[in-house]
Q: What sequence folds into this?
């Protein structure tokens, strides 16, 4: 009897050793100046351009934001850094929270629009037709 | 955020994002997403390809293999077979499960046993896989579908194996992707000049416009370049592999995106709470 596995990722092997992994390092604030709450770099684990670019766009929409940019420092490290610099009327954490909330609201609008459109059924629909 | 109001400058002129479905078939959907940013539309595309969970064969235990194909070759072919994942939400990720290796809450077991006893070629297909959970079966397109060919057997060849199918996302392995492709286009006339065409003589002749151009007004070639224009109309079409309905791929993709955002927001609040504790604890 022989065995073959078609997926042996390093991540899978690590989880074999530690069965329950409590994820508490999802978000890290990279320390800069302790007193300056208007400039911060947030490091997000296991995130990429999917979240980074949309969040960057949403944060940049805020008029209280002077600068927002993101980068993935190394392709083999699953980390995405997002830098926020704000005016002194607000703080980077507040702006980050608002950016996330705005993007959640925007996505909710898209989901609702899509669901309404599907139930509306005003389009070409053919259950049995298969491409082409 | 009030999307119809005027929260931040230019967004106030928009009525908020909207979607028009053009076509919905058993295995594909085509829709237009408007009045949203390129980054958001691209997030939807990326999430549909790589982060919508499905079920796929992840481990194969081969008991007998006297076919012409090697064990790992067959294991790889099995992994690629789409499995109906309509009820994927009922299955846990193995990493979130309390079991040590796998169990019925985080996996589906499929077995296969075929032996060729006749003097002609016998084909082994995805239809020969027997699932222990009727909700999760290899995808069959219609009644004429003969299944996906796995291996061909000659007289005396035998294949007997057990597969463990698990929940996963295509970020880890492409076999978990619910789609075979996503077509994504904006600005078919290239008015924004985001595309630089490689040409011999005439771009208009050498690069015919796509089908989506029919849905937009042809631009005046003498019009000055609008350097303030931004893409806001996205033509998205996706074809599934059959594991999920195309409309579910889109809504599950958006849900995945929302879950991600919600999770990060929660972590931010926790970080903020510990930050404030730090600040009251120490004096700088
Ligand atoms: Zn389990």
A:
């Amino acid at each position: 009897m022989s065995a073959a596995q078609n997926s042996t990722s390093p991540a899978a092997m690590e989880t074999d050793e530690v069965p329950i992994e409590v994820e508490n390092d999802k978000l890290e604030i990279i320390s800069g100046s302790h007193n300056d709450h208007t400039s911060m770099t947030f490091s997000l684990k296991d995130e990429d351009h999917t979240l980074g670019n949309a969040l960057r766009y949403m944060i940049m929409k805020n008029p209280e934001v002077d600068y927002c940019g993101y980068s993935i420092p190394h392709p083999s490290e699953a980390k995405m850094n997002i830098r926020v610099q704000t005016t002194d009327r607000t703080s980077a954490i507040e702006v980050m929270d608002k950016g996330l909330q705005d993007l959640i609201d925007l996505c909710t609008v898209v989901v609702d629009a899509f669901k309404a459109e599907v139930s509306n059924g005003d389009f070409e629909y053919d259950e049995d037709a298969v491409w082409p | 955020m009030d999307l119809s109001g005027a929260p931040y400058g230019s967004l106030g002129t928009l009525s908020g994002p909207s979607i028009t479905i053009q076509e919905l078939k058993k295995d594909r959907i085509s829709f237009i997403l408007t009045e949203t940013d390129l980054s958001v539309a691209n997030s939807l595309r990326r999430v549909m390809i790589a982060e919508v969970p499905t079920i796929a064969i992840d481990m194969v235990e081969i008991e007998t293999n006297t076919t012409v194909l090697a064990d790992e070759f067959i294991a790889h072919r099995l992994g690629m077979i789409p499995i109906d994942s309509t009820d994927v939400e009922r299955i846990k990720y193995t990493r979130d499960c309390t079991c040590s290796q796998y169990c019925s809450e985080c996996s589906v077991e499929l077995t296969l046993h075929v032996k060729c006893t006749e003097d002609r070629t016998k084909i082994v297909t995805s239809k020969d896989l027997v699932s222990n959970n009727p909700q999760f079966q290899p995808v069959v397109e219609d009644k004429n579908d003969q299944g996906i060919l796995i291996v061909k057997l000659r007289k005396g060849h035998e294949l007997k194996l057990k597969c463990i199918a698990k929940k996963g996302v295509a970020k880890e392995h492409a076999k978990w992707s619910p789609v075979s492709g996503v077509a994504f286009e904006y600005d078919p006339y290239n008015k924004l000049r985001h595309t630089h065409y490689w040409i011999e003589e005439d771009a208009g002749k050498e690069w015919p416009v796509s089908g989506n151009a029919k849905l937009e007004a042809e631009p005046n070639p003498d019009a000055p370049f609008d350097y303030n224009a931004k893409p806001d109309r996205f033509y998205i079409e996706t074809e599934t592999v059959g594991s999920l309905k195309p409309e579910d791929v889109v809504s599950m993709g958006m849900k995945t995106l929302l879950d991600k955002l919600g999770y990060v927001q929660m972590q931010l609040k926790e970080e903020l709470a510990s930050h404030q504790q730090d600040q009251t604890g120490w004096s700088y």
Summary: Residues 107 and 166 of chain B are 5 Å apart (CA to CA). Strands of chain B lie at 18-25, 28-34, 54-65, 107-115, 122-125, 130-131, 149-153, 158-168, 179-186, 233-240. Confidence is low (pLDDT under 50) at residues 1-13 of chain B.
